[in-house]
């Protein structure tokens, strides 16, 4: 009979806020830890060439990408032939597919196009469709990733420090594709 | 550590280097299993909870904690692995793991080693005969541009700490809050990535005093981007940086 | 035709039931909370990580949004006039649940919108205003969703206590009806944009079921049931009688009213199809035991609406919905019963006083009013008391205007075995609180004090 609406409201608010914060706090706050993935290490006896840095012959690439999904690799030029020498011809066009990476909205996967070992484009091969939010993320992540990759390359960059925050899923898929392409 | 690691290795041939790369990848996974804050079964988590004694841990735990202690001393307390009672060497462990992996490959006889762990880069040797390493530093405010390019030969480590990647993930150990009036990102260039990572973390937490502190650290240079787009760099940084390139394609 | 109606026809004198009916309220509340837990589980299972400040914001926004969506369906279902809720839990209690949950829902809705928009703006590195416009204008179903949210917030504001007092009842009521449109409009963006529903057929089906169920309840109990009721019973005003200054009884004639299943102590929502009265539906308790041909309500003519009731002409058609309310005989668990009425709150208690199964001496009515003249229905009460061997006491203000206090001592003086009674209360909030406290102090446990209060 005797009601204390104010106390009830305060209790309700406190319970709701702390409940939401607790739920969020209980979730991991970093991207999933890398699982042991394809540590593909092509052996090569070619001496380093002096063309564009990433097209150099004796490059060896290994990556600890996210969830192993190596089956998605489609290297048209045979870029990743395990144990075979790899000589890059400047005109060769190559498309490499990255790993499928799970995000909140579903799987994402990117494909990289390289001409003569240089990145010319990044496209989303898989992005969760039907949800405009994920499409929006793809719409800015992909061009941004492309620009970043091309910018880094056009400056003859060996590595980039301070990775920018795009959608982590797309970045991971791109990285795995680049690793697979062998630069 | 939840990061993508990539390796770029130049070598003459043989199986020693590929094997070293495999071992280096494995070492990163081991480091993740030992040091992850997010795995309740990691040795670090168990150590922090008191369920495991330091002597029972992998010897690398003691090594990393010793390095943390050294970093705390070198940074006048600005780097801290002991904030809020927990045990959190995160600010250093990635750099340490990447550096260790890179040195494993270099020791196997590679000409050039570049290991990039989520934007913290350790480079050893040279990319091609006669060419220097070039490492781009992303502009935290203009995501499609590089703020600057660092150049160097031989041993080079570049670590960046800031708000750009994951929101505020560096806290001032004295207040337990994100640093006020600080840069959006601080990049430290030195020879060892263990040092670069710890110093970048500390310098970011220091805020406005970071520049003066970095000037006094021997063999290290710093570069920072502020929230208003203003940048500063230590006096020796120009030697490591190429002509400032704004590579925006916007 | 003039009829003196005193409900003799349905008087009962059977032995009192000694087992009170159990309220389904705990079960219903448990179901509602279990549903909320399931909604949180949906978020939990579909979320892998929470990254950075923007991740926290979007995560909080999503949780708030899911809970808002769930609560909207529950709020609609609560107000669907489901008999189990209206008659067994009690309309007043359900209305209080609705009001409380409504405030909570509107707050969560604001949290949802703010957190998601700020979080998205941070993710996209675009200014909040631009991000908001983008989301509202270009995301599918978001124009509808935004409109729904605006209506819900407006209703929330108008329902807030401070504003509610300054808004006409009709304005508030019709704005409230708009919430059906708002909930309908907001429904679509939940499925087309909710990350938790993307590619999750089971979750989508459950959501459709939840909303379909709520809509079905409304359609059945708020639309079809009243239509059938009024088509079957054809209610009309028979006569209007003045009982006390500003208090009028309205006698309503209908067909086969026994089928209505109304019990003494219950009320119906009445809409008199005459002049401005037709736009308002108002709850009035039956002030006499229901009869197969007649129902009687007693109304205090205070505001514009109830004053117009006094002017009703015989033959006016009446649209009624009900019966509702849980202030009925089956809540009682003891042989002896004390009824405490204040002012026009006498109406349901008058019906109970007449019909509660009781032996002589088991039934006592305490009736408080401003002055002897205001003791509406007093003659009837005295007659019933005489016939049933019941007692009726009145408490009126003293000559100096002082109120007759209801205290534990006063109750013990009148009824030395007060602690062995069930008590039914009906009247203004102040009297109810005072009587409740006095009864508790006199040793009557709370579960044996039955009351109905529509102050939220």
Automatic annotation (TrEMBL), chain A:
Disordered: region residues: 32-106
Gene3D superfamilies: 3.90.1010.20
Pfam families named among the record's database cross-references: FMN_bind
Domain FMN-binding: 104-181
Residue ranges, compositional bias (Low complexity): 32-55, 93-106
Superkingdom assignment: Bacteria
Entries under InterPro entries matching the protein: FMN-bd (IPR007329), TAT_signal (IPR006311)
Biased composition (Gly residues): 56-75
Name used for this protein in its record: FMN-binding protein
Natural source organism: Streptantibioticus rubrisoli
UniProtKB/TrEMBL annotation, chain B:
GO molecular function per UniProt: transferase activity
Keyword annotations of the record: FAD, Flavoprotein, Magnesium, Metal-binding, Transferase
Names of required cofactors: Mg(2+)
Keyword Protein biosynthesis: no
Pfam families xrefs: ApbE (PF02424)
Entry EC no(s): 2.7.1.180
Known catalytic reactions: L-threonyl-[protein] + FAD = FMN-L-threonyl-[protein] + AMP + H(+)
Top-tier EC class: transferase
PANTHER family named in the record: FAD:PROTEIN FMN TRANSFERASE, THIAMINE BIOSYNTHESIS LIPOPROTEIN APBE
Name used for this protein in its record: FAD:protein FMN transferase
Origin species: Streptantibioticus rubrisoli
UniProtKB/TrEMBL annotation, chain C:
Chain ranges passing through the membrane: 27-44, 56-80, 101-122, 142-160, 172-193, 205-224
FAD-binding FR-type domain residues: 230-330
Cross-referenced InterPro entries: FAD-bd_FR_type, Fe3_Rdtase_TM_dom, FNR_nucleotide-bd, MRET, OxRdtase_FAD/NAD-bd, Riboflavin_synthase-like_b-brl
Main location: membrane
Localization (cell): Membrane
Cofactor: FAD
Lipid bilayer topology: Multi-pass membrane protein
Repeat keyword on record: no
Pfam short name (any one): NAD_binding_1
Keywords (A to Z) from UniProt: 2Fe-2S, FAD, Flavoprotein, Iron, Iron-sulfur, Membrane, Metal-binding, Oxidoreductase, Transmembrane, Transmembrane helix
Highest taxon of the lineage: Bacteria
PROSITE patterns assigned: FAD_FR
Stated name of the protein: Ferredoxin reductase family protein
């Amino acid at each position: 009979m005797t009601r204390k609406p104010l106390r009830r409201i305060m209790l309700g608010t406190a319970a709701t806020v702390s409940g939401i914060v607790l739920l969020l706090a209980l979730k991991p706050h970093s991207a999933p830890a890398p699982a042991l993935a394809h540590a593909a290490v092509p052996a090569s006896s070619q001496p380093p060439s002096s063309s564009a840095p990433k097209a150099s012959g004796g490059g060896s690439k290994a990556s600890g990408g996210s969830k192993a999904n190596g089956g998605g690799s489609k290297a048209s030029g045979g870029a990743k032939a395990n144990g075979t020498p790899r000589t890059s011809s400047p005109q060769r066009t190559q498309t490499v597919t990255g790993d499928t990476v799970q995000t909140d909205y579903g799987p994402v996967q990117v494909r990289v196009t390289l001409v003569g070992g240089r990145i010319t484009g990044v496209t989303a091969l898989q992005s969760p469709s039907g949800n405009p939010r994920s499409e929006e993320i793809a719409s800015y992540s992909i061009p941004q990733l492309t620009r970043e990759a091309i910018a880094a390359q056009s400056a003859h960059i060996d590595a980039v420090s301070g990775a920018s925050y795009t959608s982590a899923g797309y970045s991971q898929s791109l990285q795995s594709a680049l690793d697979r392409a062998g630069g | 550590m939840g990061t993508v690691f990539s390796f770029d290795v130049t070598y003459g041939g043989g199986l020693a280097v590929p094997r070293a790369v495999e071992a280096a990848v494995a070492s990163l996974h081991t480091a993740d299993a030992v040091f992850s804050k997010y795995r309740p079964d990691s040795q670090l988590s168990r150590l922090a909870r008191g369920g495991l004694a330091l002597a029972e841990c992998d010897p690398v735990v003691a090594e990393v904690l010793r390095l943390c202690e050294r970093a705390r001393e070198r940074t006048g307390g600005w780097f801290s692995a002991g904030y809020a009672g927990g045990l959190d060497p995160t600010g250093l462990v990635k750099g340490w793991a990447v550096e260790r992996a890179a040195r494993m490959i270099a020791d196997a006889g590679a000409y050039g080693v570049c290991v990039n762990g989520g934007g913290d880069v350790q480079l050893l040797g040279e990319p091609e005969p006669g060419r220097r390493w070039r490492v781009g530093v992303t502009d935290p405010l203009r995501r499609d541009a590089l703020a600057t390019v660092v150049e160097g030969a031989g041993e080079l480590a570049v670590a960046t700490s800031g708000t750009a990647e994951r929101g505020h993930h560096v806290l001032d150990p004295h207040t337990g809050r994100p640093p006020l009036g600080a840069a959006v990102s601080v990049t430290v260039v030195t020879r060892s990535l263990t040092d670069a990572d710890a110093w970048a973390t500390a310098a970011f937490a220091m805020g406005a005093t970071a520049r003066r502190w970095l000037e006094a650290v021997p063999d290290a240079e710093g570069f920072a981007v502020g929230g208003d787009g203003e940048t500063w760099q230590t006096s020796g940084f120009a030697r490591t940086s190429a002509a400032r390139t704004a590579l925006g394609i916007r | 035709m003039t009829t003196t109606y005193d409900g003799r026809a349905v008087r009962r004198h059977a032995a009192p039931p000694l087992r009170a009916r159990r309220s389904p309220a705990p079960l219903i509340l448990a179901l509602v909370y279990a549903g909320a837990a399931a909604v949180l589980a949906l978020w939990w299972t579909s979320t892998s990580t929470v990254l950075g400040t923007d991740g926290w914001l979007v995560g909080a926004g999503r949780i708030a949004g899911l809970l808002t969506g769930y609560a909207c369906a529950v709020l609609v279902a609560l107000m669907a006039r489901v008999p189990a809720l209206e008659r067994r839990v009690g309309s007043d209690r359900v209305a209080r649940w609705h009001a409380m949950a409504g405030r909570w829902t509107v707050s969560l809705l604001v949290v949802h919108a703010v957190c998601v928009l700020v979080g998205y703006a941070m993710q996209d590195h675009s200014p909040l205003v631009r991000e908001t416009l983008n989301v509202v204008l270009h995301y599918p179903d978001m124009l509808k969703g935004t409109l729904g949210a605006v209506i819900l917030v407006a209703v929330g504001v108008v329902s807030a206590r401070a504003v509610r007092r300054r808004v006409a009842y009709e304005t508030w009521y019709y704005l409230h009806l708009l919430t059906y449109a708002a909930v309908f409009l907001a429904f679509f963006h939940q499925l087309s944009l909710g990350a938790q529903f993307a590619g999750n057929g089971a979750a989508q089906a459950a959501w459709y079921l939840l909303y379909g169920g709520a809509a079905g309840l409304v359609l059945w109990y708020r639309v079809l049931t009243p239509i059938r009721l009024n088509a079957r019973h054809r209610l009309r005003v028979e006569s209007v009688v003045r009982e006390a200054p500003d208090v009028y009884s309205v006698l309503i004639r209908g067909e086969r009213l026994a089928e209505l299943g109304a019990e003494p102590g219950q009320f119906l929502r009445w809409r008199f199809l005459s002049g401005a009265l037709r736009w308002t539906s108002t709850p009035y308790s039956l002030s006499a035991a229901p009869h197969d041909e007649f129902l009687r309500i007693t109304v205090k003519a205070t505001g514009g609406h109830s004053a117009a009731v006094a002017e009703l002409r015989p033959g006016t058609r009446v649209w009624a919905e009900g019966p509702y309310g849980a202030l009925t005989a089956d809540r009682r668990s003891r042989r002896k019963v004390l009824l405490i009425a204040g002012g026009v709150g006498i109406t349901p208690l008058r019906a109970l006083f007449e019909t509660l199964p009781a032996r002589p001496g088991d039934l006592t009515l305490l009736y408080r009013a401003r002055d002897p003249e205001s003791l509406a229905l007093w003659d009837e009460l005295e007659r019933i008391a005489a016939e049933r061997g019941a007692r009726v006491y009145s408490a009126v203000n003293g000559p100096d205007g002082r109120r007759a206090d209801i205290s534990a001592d006063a109750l013990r003086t009148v009824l030395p075995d007060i602690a062995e009674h069930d008590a039914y209360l009906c009247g203004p909030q102040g009297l109810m609180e005072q009587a409740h406290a006095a009864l508790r102090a006199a040793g009557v446990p709370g579960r044996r004090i039955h009351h109905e209060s529509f102050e939220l």
